[in-house]
Write a structure and sequence with these properties.
The chain is mostly helical. It has a domain at about 260-465. Helix 4 (about 75-95) runs antiparallel to helix 10 (about 235-260), helix 5 (about 105-125) runs parallel beside helix 10 (about 235-260) and helix 6 packs antiparallel against helix 7 (about 150-185). The protein has helices at about 5-10, 15-30, 40-60, 75-95, 105-125, 130-145, 150-185, 200-215, 225-230, 235-260, 265-290, 295-315, 320-345, 360-365, 365-380, 385-400, 405-430, 445-460, and strands at about 65, 70-75. Strands 1-2 form a two-stranded antiparallel sheet.
Length: about 475
């Protein structure tokens, strides 16, 4: 008996397969490595395999193929999202070089790699079954990673994420069932039929499907889990969640609204999403103001940042999608860099998560303080950073599409955020004698990661790369 798949089908999933096999290699290598070199053997293998997966994904840019009967679509859209997920995985793996118990590194890195595979599947998914498979592979790994350290807050965050995420998945699954009932198909390509715009079952299914995605994107009112889970999860896991989860969910959302909705139903279905995005920009930035924990602050920041990205998608234009991808890539470097600085000033615990430990950082570690300043300025949307250019591009896209009210909310949200980010910068450059604290050990991997991210956040301002071949395909 021969399988109904061709060599082109198997080639399409080579990037995902490479990372999945790397996770197995990490576990096998851990069996034979000594106690002293466990950490670096696992991280080195994981980084190498992830880089190979990124190279294989890059080679697929510009190639269009419907693999596995149209369930997995290869193209520029898929490649760009998968590369962002690869970047998030690399940046998060590096943080394990500074934090976490060495005896658990192999298991945690393997689970993180499998979670990355789930996000990459979501980036390429073109039917409801593949979306669910990718979402569950991503989420199941994150449940385990959130509770992977012996800390009460960690176990609490894992349980909270499990319960709330499962509820959101229920919405997505029930919505998928209704979409199947309305169309008789699980392929997104079959949802474009204009007749469906008159079918109430399709509207209900699409609405529930979008509710599931809104939760994964941490938009108001489904955002309350984000700061709590971010605070309780280990720092490398928080860094991974802050980018990879959003990239996978955004890929599904963009493919769904750009290529799988009837033209007559788009505005009616998506208006609530745009309203939620506008509220998220305000609520996320207001939530940052009272935070004293970096992970909670970046959790609320992520709520606002994803709102900015959705503003670019509101017009449904190809240019808006390119600007959204540019800002998402810049956001990945901003967040990963900020977490790298936190890892660099952490000792055996996660002292870098407490904002009080940033007091006087410029006197103790001036280069780390400078890098953190770059990341905070970028998150606030100030020059000369990619965050500034990204917001300018998003504003131009939303205004040209006629969403002036979203552009106004973006400006208001940005103004509110300035105080929260300036508070951290002021702490770092405080000069009082009481701000002097002991220096933490030098952590090369975290320092290198922070330096690379800082350079890229600035360089992207002067060399804004927005690939044109990124329209989502469903067939």
């Amino acid at each position: 008996m021969t399988l109904p798949f061709t060599g082109a089908d198997w080639s399409a999933i080579l990037p995902v397969s490479a990372i999945a096999v790397t996770a197995l290699a990490v576990l096998i290598a851990d069996l034979f490595s000594g106690r002293n070199d466990q950490r670096y053997v696992s991280i080195a293998i994981a980084l190498l395999g992830t880089i190979v997966g990124g190279i294989l994904a890059a080679r697929q840019f510009g190639q269009h193929h419907d693999a596995f009967f149209g369930g997995y679509v290869v193209g520029g859209f898929t490649t760009v999202f998968q590369e962002i997920i690869v970047i998030a995985t690399l940046g998060s793996l590096v943080l394990y070089g500074a934090l976490g118990p060495a005896q658990r590194i192999a298991g945690m890195t393997a689970i993180m790699l499998w979670s990355a595979c789930g996000a990459m599947l979501m980036a390429a998914a073109a039917n409801l079954m593949m979306i669910f498979l990718g979402l569950e592979l991503l989420s199941l790994g994150l449940y385990a990673l959130c509770g992977a350290v012996d800390r009460r807050a960690s176990r609490e965050s894992a349980l909270k994420y499990l319960i709330l995420s499962s509820t959101a998945t229920g919405f997505l699954i029930f919505g998928s069932a209704l979409l199947f009932g309305a169309t008789g198909s699980i392929r997104l390509a079959d949802f474009v039929n204009p007749v469906l715009a008159m079918n109430p079952l399709f509207w209900l299914g699409a609405g529930m499907f979008l509710i599931g995605l809104v939760f994964k994107l941490s938009l108001v009112p489904f955002h309350t889990w984000t700061p709590d889970v971010f605070q309780g999860a280990p720092l490398p896991v928080t860094a991974f969640m802050s980018v990879a989860t959003k990239a996978g969910a955004l890929a599904v959302f963009a493919r769904f609204i750009y290529a799988a909705l009837p033209a007559d139903a788009v505005q009616g279905l998506l208006l609530p999403v745009w309203i939620v995005a506008g509220i998220s920009m305000i609520a996320g930035n207001v939530g940052m103001l009272a935070q004293h924990d970096l992970k909670r602050l970046l959790g609320y920041s992520g709520v606002a940042q994803i709102g900015y990205i959705l503003v670019a998608l509101a017009g449904g234009t190809p240019l808006g999608l390119r600007y959204a991808l540019y800002y998402l890539a810049a956001y990945a470097f901003m967040n990963l860099g900020a977490f790298a600085v936190a890892a660099a000033i952490s000792g055996d615990g996660e002292e870098g998560a407490d904002l009080e430990n940033y007091r006087g950082l410029a006197r103790r570690r001036p280069w780390l303080a400078a890098a953190m300043t770059v990341f905070l300025l970028a998150l606030a949307g100030l020059p000369p950073t990619a965050g500034f250019l990204g917001k300018i591009l998003i504003l131009a896209s939303s205004v040209s599409a006629g969403y002036l009210w979203l552009a106004a909310l973006l400006i208001i949200g940005t103004a509110i955020s300035l105080y929260a980010y300036a508070k951290v910068i002021r702490l770092m450059y405080e000069t009082s004698e009481g701000a002097r604290q002991a220096l933490e050990p030098f952590v090369p991997l975290a320092w290198a990661s922070a330096a690379i991210c800082a350079v890229l956040v600035v360089a992207m301002t002067f060399y804004p790369l927005t690939p044109s071949n990124v329209l989502p395909l469903v067939r």
